[in-house]
């Protein structure tokens, strides 16, 4: 992996987790062109690493990201049309297609481009004091990339409009209530909660995680009959990699007591 200046990357192939920390705390991790390029290249590299099953992103300091670096954007000609995606849009697109499960750990500010980025993740865990919003409308923009990512985030249409048209912020608790984040925890518990979740996800079969993502993203906007057909195709794809019926006993054991027993992989069980 190339040397990184604006990201701290902690990649642990033994447990299967990559921790990526946006590292511009003095700018509340504002997304500069250079930072976006590093995120994009790092994700593309991790996509080919089958030892990594979970990718966690977060921000250094007291915020996830304050959005695009507006001073950095001044030199760009935003009137020019370009082929394909770029910047934040490219990262959201890459994340949706990654074989690994992606988790955003959010504290503090998560605005504009930062909001768009977390909408590209599979799971978002927020502190109760985090702030989510799209302030672009206040400065005369409508939030490019943040807007389509928001309206594809699975939250009610009217609530998405409220966020984009008013520029008002949601707390972590409010964001969880409308479905913008997966779960919300107290600030003091955020690190330990996400650490446990990431290790749990990384303990799963990589092919199973990848195909679960493919199934979800393929089916979410399809009519039910077509979703069933797509599901059948994904199941056949999964059989090339693993057979979930090979470990029925382990699965049943993990579900005793309502799923409170931690699943233990066959190779780790005592004989």
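^ structure tokens above, recovered residues below v
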């Amino acid at each position: 992996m190339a040397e990184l200046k604006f990201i701290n990357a902690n990649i642990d192939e033994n447990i299967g987790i990559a921790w990526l920390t946006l590292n511009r705390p003095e700018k509340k991790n504002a997304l500069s062109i250079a930072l976006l390029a590093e995120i994009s290249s790092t994700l593309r590299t991790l996509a080919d690493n089958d030892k990594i099953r979970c990718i966690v992103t977060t921000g250094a300091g007291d915020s996830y990201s304050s959005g695009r670096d507006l001073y950095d954007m001044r030199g760009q000609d935003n009137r020019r049309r370009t082929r394909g995606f770029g910047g934040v849009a490219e990262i959201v697109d890459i994340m949706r297609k990654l074989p690994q499960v992606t988790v955003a750990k959010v504290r503090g500010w998560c605005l504009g481009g930062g909001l768009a980025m977390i909408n590209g993740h599979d799971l978002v865990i927020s502190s109760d004091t985090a702030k989510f919003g799209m302030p672009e409308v206040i400065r005369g923009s409508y939030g490019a990339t943040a807007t389509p990512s928001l309206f594809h985030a699975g939250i009610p249409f009217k609530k998405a409009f409220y966020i984009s048209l008013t520029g008002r912020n949601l707390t972590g608790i409010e964001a969880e209530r409308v479905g913008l984040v997966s779960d919300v925890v107290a600030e003091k518990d955020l690190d330990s909660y996400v650490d446990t979740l990431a290790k749990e996800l990384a303990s799963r079969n990589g092919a199973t995680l990848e195909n679960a993502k493919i199934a979800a993203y393929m089916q979410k906007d399809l009519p039910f009959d077509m979703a069933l057909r797509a599901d059948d195709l994904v199941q056949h794809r999964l059989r090339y990699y693993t057979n979930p019926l090979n470990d029925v006993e382990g699965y049943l054991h993990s579900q005793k007591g309502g799923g409170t027993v931690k699943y233990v992989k066959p190779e780790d069980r005592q004989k």
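Residues 13 and 90 are 26 Å apart (CA to CA).
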